[in-house]
Amino acid sequence: MKDRVVSGYRPSGRLHLGHYHGNLKTMMRLQETNDCYFFVADWHALTTDYRDTSNLGIYTTEMVLDWLAAGLDPGKCTIYRQSDIESIPEIVLYFSIITTLGELERCPTYKEQLRELDSRGVNTYGFLGYPVLMATDILIVDAELVPVGEDQEPHLELTRDIARRFNSLYGRTFPEPRAILSPSPKIPGTDGRKMSKSYNNHIGLDDEPEEIRQKVRKMITDPARARRQDKGHPGTCSVFKLYEAYPEVDSRKRADECSEATVGCTDCKDEIAGVIARDMAGLRAKRRELAGNPDVVSEILAAGADVVRPIAGEVLGRVRDAMNIGNL
Ligand code: TRP
Ligand code: SF4
After folding, report:
1. Low-confidence spans in the chain with pLDDT less than 70
2. Of 117, 120, 217, 235, which has the fewest Cβ atoms less than 10 A away?
3. What is the CA(134)–ligand 1 centre distance, in A?
4. Is 256 a domain residue?
5. Same domain, 236 and 280
6. What pTM value is reported for the model?
7. 152 within ligand 1 shell (Cβ under 6 A)
8. Distant-in-sequence contacts of 124-131, Cβ < 8 A, 24+ apart
């Protein structure tokens, strides 16, 4: 039996190169071999942005179109939206009853985001319970494998704890899912930090070649190379990290040229910007074509919900039976 796979993205609009070289490639690989469920985590998006919800629809559409352009194929995986699956909140309720406050307060992402997003008023019950919602997303489709970024590992840990606790309290109901982690800073942002829209240091999946060139040109290189004839240290240069993400370029040769000062930073940057632009050309064209027909998104989400609702309903039935809910 193939392991069942689930993963979700918050609808935050357009995707970038960091998503593409991180988790998205893993998802694309898994859709070829496994039974995959990929969803738009719109309830999750609410937990940090509940005041202004006006962009939820457009962000969902944009993100699904980017998924499709990148190569997720609704013929090979099931694409759906979290809020279309009505059984989720009921399971969230049961899980929230068996999860302790301490477990939630100990999640590193909770403390971190509470500090970072303080101004958005995220000190709420729903935000604290975010990992319970995530555990439900995973367990409600009986998933065994969860491709996610490294930062999500503590949530997977808690998901396994919840599954284990539920099984020991009410009898074996859930498999214990495993994470497939993609290292997050594989691709640096243009300022050297992790690539993220909130840092505004991203290269968009459909940036035009000239835009990519401009962004790469602005990147900080090895500070030791103040002049063209200074020898560089590729290990300390973010531009070089971009080289390493593209196996089709000879990064060893580039490293030698950099340390021997036989290539200048401007040429080095323009070259990798060209590689990125060419690699994205197919995606850009497909994205443009899809943008002319955004109705595909509602069709795909409706079909996905039709597949997932019965699965989630069956799992919910098992949960209710195990807990003696609704029985006389
Ligand atoms: N928490 C994830 C993130 O912020 C998104 C997510 C929600 C998710 N539910 C999930 C990922 C279930 C994998 C499985 O990136
Ligand atoms: Fe970085 Fe390339 Fe300049 Fe070397 S030559 S410091 S790798 S930009």
Report:
1. 183-185
2. 235
3. 6
4. yes
5. yes
6. 0.92
7. yes
8. 124/47, 124/50, 126/46, 126/47, 126/50, 127/47, 127/48, 128/101, 128/104, 129/92, 129/96, 129/99, 129/104, 130/44, 130/47, 131/104, 131/107, 131/155, 131/158, 131/159
